[in-house]
Write a structure and sequence with these properties.
Elements: H1 2-26, H2 28-54, H3 59-79, H4 81-89, H5 91-103, H6 107-112, E1 129-134, H7 157-163, E2 167-169, E3 172-173, H8 179-188, H9 208-212, E4 217-221, H10 231-234, H11 237-242, H12 245-264, H13 275-278, H14 286-296, E5 304-309, H15 342-372, E6 380-385, H16 405-409, E7 413-416, E8 424-426, E9 430-431, H17 435-443, E10 466-469, E11 484-487, H18 492-496, E12 528-529, E13 536-539, E14 559-565, E15 571-577, E16 580-587, E17 596-602, E18 615-623, E19 626-631
Parallel strand pairs: 1-5, 1-6, 2-8, 3-9, 4-5, 12-19
Antiparallel strand pairs: 2-7, 6-7, 10-11, 13-14, 14-17, 15-16, 15-18, 18-19
Length: 635
């Protein structure tokens, strides 16, 4: 952080001075002109920030206002020695900025906190502890779509099996939609004091790791937080995952540049530090993180904690149920801060569920590993999610709105107690801050700090509004004077309804989530043909389908996209691969006066073959209650 602060102060100034120096080699007059240009540019940036954040002017208006004032200011500075002298004193502001950043901001604890030691505690019933924290994981995604409130064991057999041996606290909510708040709250049993506090041990010294560190060996794999910094953690995979100091400084500098640009550019948008970048968050190949964690689980005759937080089923939703990667990036097509259409949200949900299936597969491998090292039956096993994610049309995916709050707030919590009985569905009120007190009571640990949460092994608490800490991306914010939203606990009923995921029992249901998609998996030759479509279409990067290589674990061809022309009303496009209908996707005009439209979908992989594949596009219609296909010509 010291290096980053120094770089922020020194590098831009050094670059400007270097540019003037190079100009001066050619001509002293050119150097003076360049100096005035730089002064004008910097003045314009300052003025635009003042206007951008303190007025409702359109960007082009405050640009037009700021530029002439900045030019006049630069000319005055070039002519008036007294003004230039005054401006030189502003150089001391850089020192002030560094002092404020290091001494009076969330960085203060990070930079100046001392070493953190394990807390001396007595553990009456030390058992092995295994904790898996998943990310962007709504409870509703696990459930059947028939309103039964049961886990969909066709789609998620391993979560269902875990529930059959665990206490499933179904009425469990997070305290924040933001990982850097939610995970430390879970590990400490304490509500966040403020949103977006750096998720470091300096800010959360009382936590699961410091509580067990004197007695337990620690095998800790953190993805976003830096809460375990004890010597035991430094010997675990956590340090390797954080990367070198050079990479960490580089990541913080990249984040600083992105944050600067979000402030500097004329467009107004939410500007915030993504703390996950500062700790080298691994969105890339999270499946490999789980597999490394599974490999690290070993037999142990002494108390041991195996902990993993992984960004699954977190976006980007790139995995099919067998773990094959589509190499998708970002959220999903149709997501631009909010879901831009019903299909945008539904296709995102489809991909989320497929990635959740891959997560289910990994959970099964983890349980198999624990059984193999004889560490399943008598261990305390906790599987949960830090927060959920929403897919409602017109709503953000992570920011809380009144419409999507139930899918973001309610997350799964499974606790398998040592040598516990058969599965129990427990609908008592539960929050993520209750996880650590519950673990402590199960192990017989008296934690020496006051917690906001309470053990779930005692009498159920009276239900009350659930607190969700504020987040800049929220559309729903707390009432004045409060830091959190209060969510009606009765909305748990929305969770139990589940979410639409096709017809129960249909093995292709996740590929049949839109109207007319019941034909997915059928042969084109077996379907009725009709007149050609009235619109044309093209496939993006269609050449890749002539060089497919199967069984490599990579399926970049699974996500198909393109553009139509001539669409005047809502239509459905069927993608036929080698004679098999592999996807049906909606196509709508972009605007009332436009007849072109982007389209996208995920292909059923079964029809694909090595080498060259034939991809054909058809309009999917319903005629007299029967599906009919009309050829779509290439535009």
């Amino acid at each position: 952080m010291l290096l980053v602060c120094l770089a922020i102060v020194i590098v831009p100034a050094a670059a400007a001075i270097g540019l003037e120096f190079v100009c001066g080699l050619a001509s002293s007059r050119l150097a003076e002109v360049m100096h005035s240009v730089l002064v004008a540019a910097l003045l314009a940036l300052l003025l635009m920030q003042l206007l951008k954040h303190n007025t409702t002017m359109a960007p082009w208006v405050f640009f037009c206002v700021a530029m002439p004032i900045a030019v006049v200011g630069a000319l005055l500075a070039a002519r008036l020695e007294s003004l230039r002298s005054g401006m030189r004193f502003l150089a001391f502001a850089q020192i002030l900025f560094v002092v404020l950043a290091l001494g009076f901001s969330p960085l203060t604890n990070v930079v100046f906190s001392g070493d953190v030691s394990a807390i001396r505690t007595t553990i009456e019933r030390p058992r092995r502890v295994v904790m898996l924290v998943l990310d962007e994981f709504p409870t509703a995604s696990l459930l059947r779509s028939d309103g039964s409130g049961l886990i969909d064991d066709d789609l998620f057999p391993n979560f269902s099996a875990l529930a059959s041996t665990s206490h499933w606290y179904r009425n469990h909510t997070t305290v924040s939609p933001l990982t850097s708040d939610a995970v430390p709250a879970m590990l400490s049993g304490e509500y966040p004091e403020a949103s977006q506090t750096p998720p470091t041990v300096a800010n959360h010294p009382n936590n699961l790791f410091t509580a067990l560190g004197n007695t337990y060996s620690l095998n800790v794999h953190e993805a976003v937080t830096v809460v375990c910094v004890l010597p035991q953690c430094e010997r675990s995979a956590t340090t390797k995952n954080r990367g070198s100091s050079v990479r960490r400084v580089g990541g913080a500098l990249r984040e600083s540049v992105e944050l600067w640009w979000s402030f500097a550019k004329p467009q107004r948008e939410s500007s915030e530090v993504d703390f996950t970048a500062l700790v080298d968050k691994a969105k890339d190949r999270p499946i490999e993180s789980v597999r490394r964690f599974i490999e690290s689980i070993e037999p142990s005759s002494t108390p041991r904690l195996d902990f993993l937080h992984v960004l699954l089923p977190h976006a980007p939703w790139q995995y099919l149920k067998d773990g094959s990667a589509t190499n998708a990036s970002g959220r999903s097509p149709g997501w631009e801060g909010v879901w831009r259409s019903e299909w945008a949200g539904l296709s995102g949900y489809q991909r989320h569920l497929m990635q959740l299936q891959a997560t289910d597969m990994l959970l099964g491998q983890l349980i198999d590993r624990l059984r193999a090292v004889e560490a399943f039956d008598d261990s305390l096993i906790v599987v949960t999610g830090d927060h959920g994610v929403g897919f409602d049309n017109g709503e953000p995916n992570r920011g809380i709105s009144k419409k999507n709050a139930a899918n973001i707030a309610w997350t799964p919590l499974f606790i398998k107690y040592p040598n516990g009985d058969a599965g129990v569905v427990d609908d008592r009120p539960a929050q993520s801050i209750d996880v650590l007190p519950t673990m402590a009571e199960s192990l017989g640990v008296e934690l020496p700090w006051d917690m906001d949460g309470r053990s779930l092994l005692g009498a159920p608490a009276a239900d009350a509004p659930r607190r969700l800490w504020d987040f800049k991306l929220n559309k729903w914010h707390p009432v004045s004077g409060k830091k959190y939203i209060e969510l009606d606990p009765a909305r748990f009923a929305e969770v139990l309804d589940g979410a639409p995921n096709g017809e129960i029992g249909d093995p292709l249901r996740l590929f049949r989530m839109v109207p007319r998609s019941e034909i997915v998996g059928l042969r084109y030759a077996d379907l009725a043909s009709g007149p050609p479509a009235s619109f044309t279409a093209t496939i993006k990067d269609s050449s890749q389908y002539s060089r497919i290589v199967l069984n490599t674990g990579s399926v970049p061809w699974a996500d198909i996209a393109g553009v139509t022309s001539g669409v005047t009303a809502n239509s459905y496009l069927a993608i036929v691969v080698n004679g098999i209908v592999s996807a049906v996707v909606p196509v709508s005009p972009n605007a009332p006066n436009s007849n072109s439209a982007k389209w996208w979908g995920r292909l059923l992989p079964d029809a694909m073959r090595d080498g060259v594949n034939q991809i054909e596009l058809f309009e999917a219609r319903m005629v007299d209650g029967r599906p009919q296909l009309g050829i779509v010509t290439s535009s």
